[in-house]
Fold this sequence. Notes:
Elements: E1 2-8, H1 11-26, E2 31-37, H2 44-53, E3 61-62, H3 70-88, E4 92-96, H4 100-112, E5 115-119, H5 131-142, E6 145-148, H6 151-159, E7 167-169, H7 173-185, H8 190-193, E8 202-205, H9 209-212, H10 215-229, E9 234-237, H11 240-248, H12 252-256, E10 260-263, H13 268-276, E11 280-283, H14 287-295, E12 299-301, H15 310-313, E13 317-319, H16 324-336, H17 354-366
Parallel strand pairs: 1-2, 1-4, 2-3, 4-5, 5-6, 6-7, 8-9, 8-11, 9-10, 11-12, 12-13
Amino acid sequence: xxxxxxxxxxxxxxxxxxxxxxxxxxxxxxxxxxxxxxxxxxxxxxxxxxxxxxxxxxxxxxxxxxxxxxxxxxxxxxxxxxxxxxxxxxxxxxxxxxxxxxxxxxxxxxxxxxxxxxxxxxxxxxxxxxxxxxxxxxxxxxxxxxxxxxxxxxxxxxxxxxxxxxxxxxxxxxxxxxxxxxxxxxxxxxxxxxxxxxxxxxxxxxxxxxxxxxxxxxxxxxxxxxxxxxxxxxxxxxxxxxxxxxxxxxxxxxxxxxxxxxxxxxxxxxxxxxxxxxxxxxxxxxxxxxxxxxxxxxxxxxxxxxxxxxxxxxxxxxxxxxxxxxxxxxxxxxxxxxxxxxxxxxxxxxxxxxxxxxxxxxxxxxx
Length: 367
Protein backbone atom coordinates (compact mmCIF):
# COMPACT_ATOMS: atom_id res chain seq x y z
CA UNK A 1 0.00 0.00 0.00
CA UNK A 2 1.28 3.43 -0.97
CA UNK A 3 0.95 6.30 1.48
CA UNK A 4 0.48 9.50 -0.55
CA UNK A 5 0.37 13.09 0.66
CA UNK A 6 -1.78 15.08 -1.77
CA UNK A 7 -0.89 18.78 -1.66
CA UNK A 8 -3.50 21.52 -2.19
CA UNK A 9 -2.91 25.21 -1.75
CA UNK A 10 -4.99 27.22 -4.21
CA UNK A 11 -8.44 26.69 -5.70
CA UNK A 12 -7.26 25.18 -9.03
CA UNK A 13 -5.44 22.52 -6.98
CA UNK A 14 -8.69 21.38 -5.36
CA UNK A 15 -10.29 20.48 -8.72
CA UNK A 16 -7.20 18.48 -9.69
CA UNK A 17 -6.74 16.64 -6.40
CA UNK A 18 -10.43 15.78 -5.86
CA UNK A 19 -10.72 13.03 -8.52
CA UNK A 20 -7.25 11.66 -7.66
CA UNK A 21 -8.10 11.44 -3.97
CA UNK A 22 -11.45 9.80 -4.79
CA UNK A 23 -9.74 7.20 -6.98
CA UNK A 24 -7.16 6.46 -4.28
CA UNK A 25 -9.93 6.00 -1.70
CA UNK A 26 -11.74 3.66 -4.08
CA UNK A 27 -8.57 1.55 -4.33
CA UNK A 28 -8.15 1.26 -0.58
CA UNK A 29 -6.01 -1.88 -0.75
CA UNK A 30 -3.45 0.00 -2.86
CA UNK A 31 -3.43 3.56 -1.48
CA UNK A 32 -3.54 5.44 1.81
CA UNK A 33 -4.18 9.04 0.68
CA UNK A 34 -3.94 12.10 2.93
CA UNK A 35 -4.70 15.72 2.05
CA UNK A 36 -2.35 18.52 3.10
CA UNK A 37 -3.78 22.03 2.68
CA UNK A 38 -1.06 24.67 2.81
CA UNK A 39 -3.54 27.50 3.29
CA UNK A 40 -2.11 29.49 0.36
CA UNK A 41 -5.72 30.44 -0.43
CA UNK A 42 -7.05 31.06 3.04
CA UNK A 43 -10.35 32.89 2.52
CA UNK A 44 -13.14 30.51 3.60
CA UNK A 45 -15.56 31.79 0.96
CA UNK A 46 -13.05 31.02 -1.78
CA UNK A 47 -11.48 27.88 -0.33
CA UNK A 48 -13.67 25.87 2.03
CA UNK A 49 -16.68 26.05 -0.31
CA UNK A 50 -14.67 24.28 -2.99
CA UNK A 51 -14.01 21.35 -0.65
CA UNK A 52 -17.75 21.05 0.00
CA UNK A 53 -18.69 21.33 -3.69
CA UNK A 54 -16.10 18.75 -4.71
CA UNK A 55 -17.10 16.29 -1.98
CA UNK A 56 -13.64 16.38 -0.43
CA UNK A 57 -13.09 15.69 3.27
CA UNK A 58 -11.61 18.17 5.72
CA UNK A 59 -7.84 18.20 5.07
CA UNK A 60 -5.81 15.84 7.25
CA UNK A 61 -3.23 18.60 7.74
CA UNK A 62 -3.70 22.36 7.43
CA UNK A 63 -0.54 24.51 7.41
CA UNK A 64 -2.39 27.87 7.59
CA UNK A 65 0.37 29.83 5.85
CA UNK A 66 -1.89 32.62 4.57
CA UNK A 67 -0.98 35.46 2.25
CA UNK A 68 2.49 36.96 1.78
CA UNK A 69 5.01 37.80 -0.92
CA UNK A 70 6.08 34.91 -3.16
CA UNK A 71 9.35 34.49 -1.26
CA UNK A 72 7.84 34.63 2.21
CA UNK A 73 4.90 32.41 1.33
CA UNK A 74 7.11 29.78 -0.31
CA UNK A 75 9.50 29.80 2.65
CA UNK A 76 6.65 29.51 5.18
CA UNK A 77 5.18 26.54 3.35
CA UNK A 78 8.58 24.81 3.32
CA UNK A 79 9.11 25.42 7.02
CA UNK A 80 5.63 24.19 7.98
CA UNK A 81 5.65 21.22 5.60
CA UNK A 82 9.04 19.77 6.59
CA UNK A 83 7.99 18.43 10.02
CA UNK A 84 4.79 17.01 8.50
CA UNK A 85 6.84 15.14 5.92
CA UNK A 86 9.25 13.82 8.53
CA UNK A 87 6.39 12.68 10.73
CA UNK A 88 4.19 11.10 8.05
CA UNK A 89 6.99 9.33 6.10
CA UNK A 90 4.94 8.96 2.88
CA UNK A 91 5.88 6.83 -0.11
CA UNK A 92 4.93 9.69 -2.42
CA UNK A 93 4.06 13.36 -2.31
CA UNK A 94 1.75 14.39 -5.13
CA UNK A 95 1.78 18.03 -6.22
CA UNK A 96 -0.38 19.62 -8.91
CA UNK A 97 -0.22 22.69 -11.10
CA UNK A 98 2.11 25.63 -10.72
CA UNK A 99 1.38 27.57 -7.52
CA UNK A 100 3.82 28.37 -4.71
CA UNK A 101 2.61 25.35 -2.73
CA UNK A 102 3.63 23.12 -5.64
CA UNK A 103 7.28 24.13 -5.76
CA UNK A 104 7.62 24.62 -1.99
CA UNK A 105 6.52 21.08 -1.12
CA UNK A 106 8.45 19.56 -4.02
CA UNK A 107 11.62 21.28 -2.80
CA UNK A 108 11.24 19.94 0.72
CA UNK A 109 10.76 16.43 -0.67
CA UNK A 110 13.80 16.77 -2.90
CA UNK A 111 15.98 17.75 0.07
CA UNK A 112 14.70 14.84 2.17
CA UNK A 113 14.74 12.17 -0.53
CA UNK A 114 10.97 11.65 -0.71
CA UNK A 115 9.53 10.81 -4.14
CA UNK A 116 7.48 13.55 -5.86
CA UNK A 117 4.88 13.14 -8.59
CA UNK A 118 3.93 16.28 -10.49
CA UNK A 119 0.47 16.34 -12.06
CA UNK A 120 0.16 18.75 -15.00
CA UNK A 121 3.87 18.51 -15.75
CA UNK A 122 5.50 19.87 -18.88
CA UNK A 123 3.30 22.91 -19.51
CA UNK A 124 5.25 25.94 -20.69
CA UNK A 125 4.29 29.50 -21.59
CA UNK A 126 7.96 30.39 -22.28
CA UNK A 127 7.40 33.61 -20.35
CA UNK A 128 9.70 33.67 -17.34
CA UNK A 129 8.18 36.89 -16.04
CA UNK A 130 5.28 34.71 -14.86
CA UNK A 131 5.90 33.32 -11.35
CA UNK A 132 3.92 30.23 -12.37
CA UNK A 133 6.37 29.48 -15.18
CA UNK A 134 9.28 29.44 -12.75
CA UNK A 135 7.30 27.15 -10.46
CA UNK A 136 6.57 24.77 -13.36
CA UNK A 137 10.16 24.55 -14.56
CA UNK A 138 11.66 24.05 -11.11
CA UNK A 139 9.04 21.51 -10.01
CA UNK A 140 9.52 19.44 -13.16
CA UNK A 141 13.30 19.51 -12.75
CA UNK A 142 13.17 17.88 -9.29
CA UNK A 143 10.16 15.55 -9.63
CA UNK A 144 10.55 11.78 -9.88
CA UNK A 145 7.40 11.19 -11.92
CA UNK A 146 6.08 13.75 -14.38
CA UNK A 147 2.44 13.26 -15.35
CA UNK A 148 1.56 15.31 -18.43
CA UNK A 149 -1.90 16.43 -19.60
CA UNK A 150 -1.14 16.64 -23.33
CA UNK A 151 1.56 15.60 -25.84
CA UNK A 152 3.14 19.07 -25.91
CA UNK A 153 4.07 18.54 -22.25
CA UNK A 154 6.07 15.44 -23.17
CA UNK A 155 7.80 17.33 -25.97
CA UNK A 156 8.73 20.22 -23.68
CA UNK A 157 10.22 17.89 -21.07
CA UNK A 158 12.19 15.99 -23.72
CA UNK A 159 13.71 19.29 -24.90
CA UNK A 160 14.73 20.01 -21.30
CA UNK A 161 16.59 16.72 -21.07
CA UNK A 162 14.24 14.90 -18.70
CA UNK A 163 14.46 11.12 -19.12
CA UNK A 164 11.55 9.51 -20.98
CA UNK A 165 11.03 6.88 -18.28
CA UNK A 166 10.12 9.60 -15.77
CA UNK A 167 7.40 11.07 -18.03
CA UNK A 168 3.90 9.66 -18.50
CA UNK A 169 1.09 11.12 -20.61
CA UNK A 170 -2.05 10.66 -18.48
CA UNK A 171 -4.47 13.32 -19.74
CA UNK A 172 -6.12 16.26 -18.05
CA UNK A 173 -7.41 15.62 -14.53
CA UNK A 174 -9.33 18.91 -14.54
CA UNK A 175 -11.64 17.30 -17.08
CA UNK A 176 -12.28 14.44 -14.63
CA UNK A 177 -13.71 16.99 -12.19
CA UNK A 178 -15.64 18.74 -14.94
CA UNK A 179 -17.31 15.60 -16.26
CA UNK A 180 -18.08 14.24 -12.79
CA UNK A 181 -19.73 17.44 -11.61
CA UNK A 182 -21.48 18.82 -14.69
CA UNK A 183 -24.73 17.01 -13.91
CA UNK A 184 -24.52 17.89 -10.21
CA UNK A 185 -24.05 21.55 -11.14
CA UNK A 186 -27.46 21.55 -12.83
CA UNK A 187 -28.96 21.89 -9.34
CA UNK A 188 -27.39 25.36 -9.07
CA UNK A 189 -29.80 28.25 -9.52
CA UNK A 190 -27.12 30.78 -10.43
CA UNK A 191 -28.47 31.38 -13.95
CA UNK A 192 -32.00 31.91 -12.65
CA UNK A 193 -30.74 34.13 -9.84
CA UNK A 194 -29.01 36.36 -12.41
CA UNK A 195 -31.91 36.19 -14.91
CA UNK A 196 -29.75 34.55 -17.57
CA UNK A 197 -30.77 32.39 -20.51
CA UNK A 198 -28.45 29.75 -21.96
CA UNK A 199 -26.10 31.16 -24.64
CA UNK A 200 -27.47 34.62 -23.91
CA UNK A 201 -24.48 35.95 -21.98
CA UNK A 202 -20.68 35.93 -21.70
CA UNK A 203 -18.54 35.15 -18.65
CA UNK A 204 -15.37 37.01 -17.66
CA UNK A 205 -12.59 36.19 -15.19
CA UNK A 206 -9.51 38.34 -14.60
CA UNK A 207 -6.94 37.90 -11.86
CA UNK A 208 -3.37 37.91 -13.24
CA UNK A 209 -1.23 40.74 -11.84
CA UNK A 210 -0.02 41.65 -15.33
CA UNK A 211 -3.65 42.39 -16.27
CA UNK A 212 -5.14 43.92 -13.14
CA UNK A 213 -2.25 45.64 -11.35
CA UNK A 214 -1.33 48.00 -14.20
CA UNK A 215 -3.90 50.78 -14.48
CA UNK A 216 -3.29 51.37 -18.19
CA UNK A 217 -3.54 47.68 -19.12
CA UNK A 218 -6.56 47.07 -16.90
CA UNK A 219 -8.23 50.23 -18.20
CA UNK A 220 -7.77 49.09 -21.79
CA UNK A 221 -9.27 45.71 -20.96
CA UNK A 222 -12.25 47.35 -19.25
CA UNK A 223 -12.83 49.60 -22.28
CA UNK A 224 -12.86 46.62 -24.66
CA UNK A 225 -15.18 44.68 -22.36
CA UNK A 226 -17.58 47.60 -22.08
CA UNK A 227 -17.82 47.61 -25.90
CA UNK A 228 -18.38 43.85 -26.03
CA UNK A 229 -21.09 44.14 -23.37
CA UNK A 230 -23.08 46.29 -25.79
CA UNK A 231 -23.48 43.11 -27.89
CA UNK A 232 -23.92 40.61 -25.07
CA UNK A 233 -24.17 40.97 -21.26
CA UNK A 234 -20.98 39.97 -19.42
CA UNK A 235 -21.07 38.31 -15.98
CA UNK A 236 -17.89 39.04 -14.05
CA UNK A 237 -17.31 37.04 -10.82
CA UNK A 238 -14.49 39.18 -9.46
CA UNK A 239 -11.64 37.96 -7.27
CA UNK A 240 -11.43 40.26 -4.21
CA UNK A 241 -8.05 41.58 -5.36
CA UNK A 242 -9.41 42.34 -8.83
CA UNK A 243 -12.47 44.05 -7.37
CA UNK A 244 -10.13 46.14 -5.23
CA UNK A 245 -8.26 47.29 -8.33
CA UNK A 246 -11.54 48.28 -10.03
CA UNK A 247 -12.24 50.55 -7.09
CA UNK A 248 -8.65 51.80 -6.67
CA UNK A 249 -8.28 52.75 -10.35
CA UNK A 250 -11.67 54.49 -10.52
CA UNK A 251 -13.35 52.05 -12.92
CA UNK A 252 -16.49 51.47 -10.83
CA UNK A 253 -18.71 54.00 -12.61
CA UNK A 254 -17.59 52.81 -16.05
CA UNK A 255 -18.45 49.21 -15.16
CA UNK A 256 -21.76 50.10 -13.51
CA UNK A 257 -22.91 52.10 -16.57
CA UNK A 258 -22.10 49.18 -18.89
CA UNK A 259 -23.72 45.80 -19.38
CA UNK A 260 -21.00 44.17 -17.27
CA UNK A 261 -22.42 42.66 -14.10
CA UNK A 262 -19.74 42.43 -11.43
CA UNK A 263 -20.62 39.78 -8.83
CA UNK A 264 -18.97 38.08 -5.86
CA UNK A 265 -16.78 34.99 -6.44
CA UNK A 266 -18.75 31.79 -6.91
CA UNK A 267 -18.32 28.27 -5.56
CA UNK A 268 -17.17 25.54 -7.90
CA UNK A 269 -20.60 24.18 -8.84
CA UNK A 270 -22.21 27.61 -9.25
CA UNK A 271 -19.35 28.79 -11.42
CA UNK A 272 -19.47 25.62 -13.53
CA UNK A 273 -23.20 26.13 -14.04
CA UNK A 274 -22.53 29.73 -15.04
CA UNK A 275 -19.76 29.27 -17.61
CA UNK A 276 -21.18 26.03 -19.06
CA UNK A 277 -24.17 27.99 -20.36
CA UNK A 278 -22.21 30.93 -21.76
CA UNK A 279 -21.99 31.85 -25.43
CA UNK A 280 -18.48 33.21 -24.89
CA UNK A 281 -15.86 33.11 -22.12
CA UNK A 282 -13.15 35.74 -21.68
CA UNK A 283 -10.39 34.87 -19.23
CA UNK A 284 -6.76 35.01 -18.18
CA UNK A 285 -7.13 31.71 -16.30
CA UNK A 286 -5.41 28.49 -17.35
CA UNK A 287 -8.11 26.08 -16.27
CA UNK A 288 -10.94 27.82 -18.13
CA UNK A 289 -9.04 27.47 -21.40
CA UNK A 290 -9.19 23.72 -20.86
CA UNK A 291 -12.74 23.45 -19.56
CA UNK A 292 -14.19 25.54 -22.39
CA UNK A 293 -12.32 23.39 -24.91
CA UNK A 294 -13.83 20.25 -23.35
CA UNK A 295 -17.32 21.80 -23.54
CA UNK A 296 -16.96 23.38 -26.98
CA UNK A 297 -17.43 26.94 -25.72
CA UNK A 298 -15.57 29.77 -27.51
CA UNK A 299 -12.88 31.22 -25.23
CA UNK A 300 -10.80 34.36 -25.63
CA UNK A 301 -7.63 34.28 -23.52
CA UNK A 302 -6.63 37.79 -22.46
CA UNK A 303 -2.90 37.08 -22.29
CA UNK A 304 0.10 37.35 -24.59
CA UNK A 305 0.98 33.67 -24.18
CA UNK A 306 -0.45 30.42 -22.87
CA UNK A 307 1.01 27.26 -21.36
CA UNK A 308 -1.95 25.36 -22.85
CA UNK A 309 -1.41 25.67 -26.63
CA UNK A 310 -3.36 22.48 -27.31
CA UNK A 311 -6.55 24.40 -26.48
CA UNK A 312 -5.73 26.66 -29.44
CA UNK A 313 -4.49 23.94 -31.80
CA UNK A 314 -7.39 21.54 -31.19
CA UNK A 315 -9.96 23.37 -29.11
CA UNK A 316 -12.02 26.52 -28.93
CA UNK A 317 -9.46 28.91 -27.46
CA UNK A 318 -8.08 32.06 -29.12
CA UNK A 319 -5.10 33.92 -27.67
CA UNK A 320 -6.06 37.58 -28.11
CA UNK A 321 -3.52 39.36 -25.90
CA UNK A 322 -4.42 42.59 -24.15
CA UNK A 323 -4.80 44.99 -27.08
CA UNK A 324 -8.33 46.42 -26.71
CA UNK A 325 -9.03 46.65 -30.44
CA UNK A 326 -7.93 43.06 -31.05
CA UNK A 327 -10.08 41.83 -28.17
CA UNK A 328 -13.14 43.68 -29.44
CA UNK A 329 -12.71 42.65 -33.06
CA UNK A 330 -12.15 38.98 -32.21
CA UNK A 331 -15.09 38.89 -29.80
CA UNK A 332 -17.42 40.43 -32.40
CA UNK A 333 -16.27 37.91 -35.03
CA UNK A 334 -16.78 34.94 -32.70
CA UNK A 335 -20.20 36.14 -31.58
CA UNK A 336 -21.28 36.51 -35.21
CA UNK A 337 -19.97 33.08 -36.29
CA UNK A 338 -22.42 30.32 -35.39
CA UNK A 339 -19.99 27.70 -36.78
CA UNK A 340 -16.94 28.87 -34.85
CA UNK A 341 -16.58 25.63 -32.87
CA UNK A 342 -17.49 23.29 -35.76
CA UNK A 343 -13.96 21.96 -36.27
CA UNK A 344 -12.87 21.93 -32.63
CA UNK A 345 -11.83 18.64 -31.04
CA UNK A 346 -11.26 17.42 -27.50
CA UNK A 347 -7.57 16.59 -26.94
CA UNK A 348 -6.55 12.97 -26.43
CA UNK A 349 -7.08 11.43 -22.97
CA UNK A 350 -9.33 14.29 -21.83
CA UNK A 351 -11.89 11.60 -21.12
CA UNK A 352 -12.58 11.70 -17.39
CA UNK A 353 -10.26 8.78 -16.62
CA UNK A 354 -7.03 10.64 -15.90
CA UNK A 355 -7.14 9.96 -12.15
CA UNK A 356 -7.15 6.23 -12.88
CA UNK A 357 -4.06 6.59 -15.08
CA UNK A 358 -2.32 8.70 -12.43
CA UNK A 359 -2.88 6.03 -9.79
CA UNK A 360 -1.73 3.30 -12.19
CA UNK A 361 1.43 5.30 -12.92
CA UNK A 362 2.25 5.65 -9.22
CA UNK A 363 1.86 1.90 -8.71
CA UNK A 364 3.85 0.99 -11.80
CA UNK A 365 6.69 3.35 -10.86
CA UNK A 366 6.81 1.99 -7.33
CA UNK A 367 7.01 -1.70 -8.22
